[in-house]
Design a protein that fits this description.
- With 90 residues, the protein is mainly α.
- The protein is 86% helix and 0% strand.
- It has one domain.
- It is built from three helices and no strands.
- Helix 1 runs antiparallel to helix 2 and helix 2 packs antiparallel against helix 3.
- The longest helix is centred in the N-terminal third of the chain and has 31 residues.
- The protein is elongated.
Length: 90
């Protein structure tokens, strides 16, 4: 049985790291764009909550659990804000 070369192991890690980085940048960009649109429509508040959830997932996947926890809390806060907006609109 042969062992894989170190370069092939590192290549796989770097590829996974790049994919995770692209996911994180995309999630944070989406979150900030939705935050900017919150005053336009309550749907942006719900989308912001989803963006926070994605950012939280990124935090946990990247090993930054504190970031993941904070973003999860922000997602819950945004969901509550969305619920309050919908209740006040009707």
């Amino acid at each position: 049985m042969t062992r894989p070369a170190l370069s092939s192991i590192l290549h796989g890690y770097c590829h996974t790291g790049a994919v995770l980085t692209v996911f994180g940048v995309s999630a944070l960009t989406f979150m900030m764009l939705m935050y900017a649109g919150e005053s336009r429509h309550s749907g942006f508040v719900l989308a912001f909550a989803c963006g926070c959830g994605l950012a939280s997932l990124y935090g946990f996947l990247s090993g930054a659990w504190a970031f993941g926890v904070v973003e999860a809390i922000w997602a819950l806060v945004a969901l509550r804000r969305f619920a309050n907006r919908v209740a006040n609109a009707s």
